[in-house]
What we know:
The protein is of the alpha+beta class. The chain has 3 helices and 4 strands; from the N terminus they run ααββββα. The radius of gyration is 64 Å and the shape is rod-shaped.
Amino acid sequence: MVLSCVAIAGKQTSERWQEKSTWGKLKVGMTEQGVGRLLGEPKHKKASRSACMWYYQDIPTEENKRPSFGIIHFRRSTTNESFAAHKWAEPDWQRVQADIETLRLQQEAEAEQARLEKEHELAQRRLEAEQREIEQAKQRERRLKETEAEREKRRQEQTEAQAKRQKHMTELRAKREREQAELRSVKPTGFASKYFIIIGVVFLGMAAAITFFVKGVGGRWK
């Protein structure tokens, strides 16, 4: 046979037991299921073969082995072997109110702590976002400077290349001018040489002709 009321420490899933009007609805003979639906699960259960105790306000300890408030005593039924409510002691309502107030203050403190943590988290996120924006701005500035430096370098290279081309063209022009000057200085001498050669040839021809003529006339005279 399995007992439904076992000696375990249960998690309190409802706070209905803290309402005084709810305890007024308890009736002798109510089943465990009925009591559970009315008051919720207790903090602790302790059972034997003939009886079962539900503790709502205090849990039995070494110092307080038999709590006096917030207790429901179940007794085993002789008919169906189940447990039924036999008697009970309502909670200490002053303590309940104090516990409720303490719980309220604790919940408010936890909510305030959660709010502060949320604000801190949001502030941290904003700070991180601002730092990312600053870093991105620095990166953009560095890229801009690098791009400008590259442009300046290309401009310098183009300027240097143009200067080299101009220097080369100037050297070529100077060389051509020197060559032309040399040619101009050589042409008159060459022309005079050719002129004198022609004159010499003409004179030689005339001399040969005169000689031939003289010989021919002399022969006829003989």
